[in-house]
Prior knowledge:
mainly alpha, two-stranded antiparallel ribbon, globular
Amino acid sequence: MSFSESTQQAPTPQLTASSAYNRRLRVAQGVLLLFHVTGFLGLAFSQDPSFYLQFVPLNLLLTMLLLLAFQPDRSAAFVVFCITVAAVSFFVEVAGVQTGRLFGQYDYGAVLGWKWMGVPLLIGLNWLMLTYMAGILAEYVRVPSFVRAIIAAILVVGMDVCIEPVAVRYGFWTWRYDIIPMQNFKAWFALALILQVYFNRTYFVKRNPLVPFVYLLQLLFFFGLGMIGG
């Protein structure tokens, strides 16, 4: 066999699969970037932000579906984890809205879609997404599991700090007296920590190449809107 023939062999299946996977990842990142940039520009500079607000539920669903698409292990344990986190967080929010004793006194608007018992059905999905992303990110830190849970809970609360002023401005929810209470962040941390301990004790593959991109994208999205509105 000549030298030229030996250097023109077909790529191995592993390299082909890796290349295709990377292309899918770039496409997913591009789609999410397009949605978030369009939403950012529309909410920040449009004369009619209500047009863009109607796509918030779609954006949330799309983001979660893409994250799930790049989760390598969708075993029964992972499915149970997702259902449990979404259900527990939803009913904690219901208790919060109905009593005003957990997060403070607040009410949800119409932006997040259909509601049951005063809470949008997508809230459980939002908690699942934040819990999942924070847990995956904390896996990069080689510390004891409870310390990782604390780090992940801080990441969740950090995102909420950026979300709150934007959510209030655009009617996602409203606070009594228009004041975001410190109690809200304390309750978020407590619930996030409980869910992260559960995350650490559930066995499934905890890596996802899309997670760092999505977390940073959402953080910049809400932080940027908050700065412009401030």
